[in-house]
Amino acid sequence: MPRAEEQSSQVAPQHPAEMAAVPPKIQRFKEAMRLVYGNFDSPPSPYLRAMASASSSTSLSSLAGVGGGMAHKATPSSSSSFSAAAAATLKPETAATGGKGAASSAAPTTTTSAMQKKKRRDTLTPPPSPLLTVGGIPQWAESWTPPSHPGAGGHRGRYLWTDAFGLVNMLTLWKESGNGTYLVLAKRLARRVHEVLGREREPRGAGEEEEEGGGGGGGGEKRYNRLPGATDEEPLKGGLRIGKEDSRGADGDGMYLHYITLWAFALTQLGLASREGEWVTLAAKLLKSVHRAFVREEHVGRKRTLRIVWKVSSDMEHVLVDRMGHLDAVTGLGVVRFISAAAEKLGVDLGKDEHGVGLEREEKDYAEVVEMREKVMGEGEGGNGGAGGAKVSPSRDMLDLGMGLWVAMLPGLRDQESWAGEFVEDSVTMAKTVMRKEGGVLAQKEGGRLAFREFGAVMGLKCCLCDGGYEEKEGMGAGKGVSANAIEADRKYLLGRGDDVLKFWEDFMARSEDEEFEPIALVMYAAALVPGAFRPDYFDSN
Question: Cα separation of 424 and 326, whole Å?
Answer without folding.
Answer: 15
